[in-house]
Amino acid sequence: MIKIEVDMNQCQHYGQCVFEAPDNFKLNDDDKLEYVAEAPDSERDNIEAAVDVCPMQAIRIVE
Amino acid sequence: MTVANPAAPVVIVGAAMGGLRAAESLRRSGYTGAIRVVGEELHAPYNRPPLSKEVLATDVTHEAVAFPSRAEMGDVEWMLGVRATAVDLDARTLTTDDGEVQPWRALVIATGLRARRLDFAPIAGRHVVRSLDDAMALRAELTEGARVVVVGSGFLGCELSATARKLGCEVTIVTPSAEPMMRPLGELVAKEMRRRLTNEGVDIFSGVTVAAINGETTVESVELSDGTVVPADVLIESVGSECNTEWLESTDLDLSDGVLADNAMRAVTTSGVARDDVYVVGDIARFPNPMFDDVARRIEHWNIPTDTGKRAGAVLAAHLADDGSFADVVAKPFAPVPSFWSNQFEIKLQAYGLLGLVSDDDIRVLEGDLSDQAAVGYYRDDRLVGVLGIGMKAALLPYRKQIAEGGA
Ligand SMILES: Cc1cc2nc3c(=O)[nH]c(=O)nc-3n(C[C@H](O)[C@H](O)[C@H](O)COP(=O)(O)OP(=O)(O)OC[C@H]3O[C@@H](n4cnc5c(N)ncnc54)[C@H](O)[C@@H]3O)c2cc1C
Q1: Is B271 contained in some domain?
Q2: B3 falls in which pLDDT band (50, 70, 90)?
Q3: What is the pLDDT of residues B41-59, one digit of tens each?
Q4: B339 occurs within a structural domain
Q5: Chain B contacts of A57, Cβ < 8 Å?
Q6: Helix/strand/coil percentages in chain A, nearest 5
Q7: What is the pTM of this model?
Q8: Which GO terms describe its molecular function (chain A) (predicted)?
Q9: Does residue B5 register a pLDDT over 80?
Q10: Atom 3 (ligand 1): residue with closest C-alpha?
């Protein structure tokens, strides 16, 4: 299991993570980020890509 | 050409986002040999966009903007505070300003851009913002009531204006353009941006350039081409950038605008040959993106160092592995969707695609209302090539998909 943390004080809801890891991140109808804090290990590449593309660098994998 | 020495490291020149992503990608793609990153700045790679926005508005520290370091990067060697001065592509060596000549097995060019300066004598009070050190120096002068003149009205100039204004400065933009952000966004949107920036108390002098900078020991005023004199304590020059290619001048690489690369991010020579041992990533890379056409372009957007760094790392790792996978990896489609964002006061812009490809007649509001929230479409030959959100985000996603799929 991978554990994900998003600093919601930093997050500006750009939604770049949504393209990389759609199983874990989405923008709701109010343009706000919603995310699932756990992902199977098979999703690691996608979650790391989501971490990379966050303009605010607000996403972290908790090891 | 000599045979590559497998004991020599892959040398990445430029220790910023593009260089970092290339190194990470080499590791992730299975390359276990030595990697050395040579960078002129003393700081480990950090994120630049907050330097004109959130971080400039608060406390400018490396900690606030540093990229996280991954475990797989543990044995990457960082040579920071060292500038590359020359390279020999035949001998496969790099010369640095500390006098060292080091061998490399493959080279990644990631030296990005520097801020262009106005052509006036040096004087205290003149600033640019490209690096963390630049932002720290500027932050110290953005005190309440300071009179700030920003030259240039691209995204960066407008963001710096907004941040200075939020910090209580008196802000004037001086720009040769008719409207702020005119070139990247087009007239329709740029006119609305002027309205919003003016509403926030930013003065805009457009259609003018700087004729003189006045002051004894520090900037006191700026004289414009129409004779207007604008008092100033701080002058911020945001007039574009120049590619850091000087260290490559003795090579036969195509340096006509940045460094030319093919779609696998391999550097291309003036005779049109792509080199399997030299790669280009980030702002400095001029490469073709089949999403639009076969024209090679430089794209100064934040996602590009990551996308091109990953691509270059994967292709180079396959080349070094020499396991027969190279041709397949090179042939993999690579068509990154350019994307950028910009925050100015409460204005939140987000875009996908290449807005700059389009003439003013081919820009239309797709959803919403320009004076509030809107999605704006940029068309070339009736094909959607760019979309801009003003305040809107999720609404852009279907348009992004359309652009990525060829805009039909
Ligand atoms: C203040 C600011 C705000 C921005 N905001 C946004 C934004 O909101 N949205 C967006 O999409 N984009 C934004 N950008 C653009 C984005 O940050 C760039 O696209 C990105 O930084 C490019 O990364 P890079 O690694 O290609 O090059 P750079 O970041 O330019 O890094 C190149 C590195 O190479 C080093 N170097 C240069 N020459 C040598 C040499 N000879 N030897 C050794 N090292 C050398 C430099 O010191 C530098 O560290 C912004 C840029 C700035 C400066």
Answers
A1: yes
A2: low
A3: 999 999 999 999 999 999 9
A4: no
A5: 47, 65, 67-68
A6: 30, 25, 45
A7: 0.97
A8: 3 iron, 4 sulfur cluster binding; metal ion binding
A9: no
A10: B49
For B134, other C-beta atoms within 10 Å of its C-beta total 18
Taking CB atoms and an 8 Å cutoff, what residues of chain B touch A12? Answer: 341, 343, 348
* Nearest-CA distance B322 → chain A (Å): 24
Interface of A with B (CB under 8 A): 12-16, 18-19, 27-29, 31, 51-53, 55-57, 60, 63
- In a mutational test of the B interface, the residue from A52, A53, A59, A61 whose CB has the highest number of chain B CBs within 10 Å is A52
Structurally, chain B folds into a number of domains equal to 3
pLDDT tens column, B336-385: 999 999 999 999 999 999 999 999 989 999 999 999 999 999 999 999 99
Note whether A52 contacts B343, CB cutoff 8 Å: no
Domain end marker among B224, B239, B254: B239
For chains A and B, CB pairs below 8 A equal 38
- CATH assignment at residue A22: 3.30.70.20
Percent of chain B's residues with pLDDT above 90: 96
Give residue B259's domain range.
Answer: 10-48+67-114+242-331
Strands (E), B56-215: 77-80, 84-88, 93-96, 101-103, 106-109, 113-115, 126-127, 147-151, 170-175, 203-206, 210-214
CATH classification of the domain holding B207 = 3.50.50.60
B274 — pLDDT class (breaks 50, 70, 90): very high
* Chain A residues whose beta carbon lies within 8 Å of the beta carbon of residue B400: 19
At A31-52, the pLDDT tens digits run 999 999 999 999 999 999 999 9
pLDDT at position B4 is 67
Q: Give the pLDDT confidence score for residue B72 in this predicted structure.
A: 86
Closest CA to B261 of B245, B246, B247, B250: B245
What is the tally of structural domains in chain A? 1
Burial B170-191 (b: 16+ CB within 10 A, else e): bbbbbbebebbbbebbbeebbe
Residue type at A34 in one-letter notation: E
ipTM for the predicted complex comes to 0.93
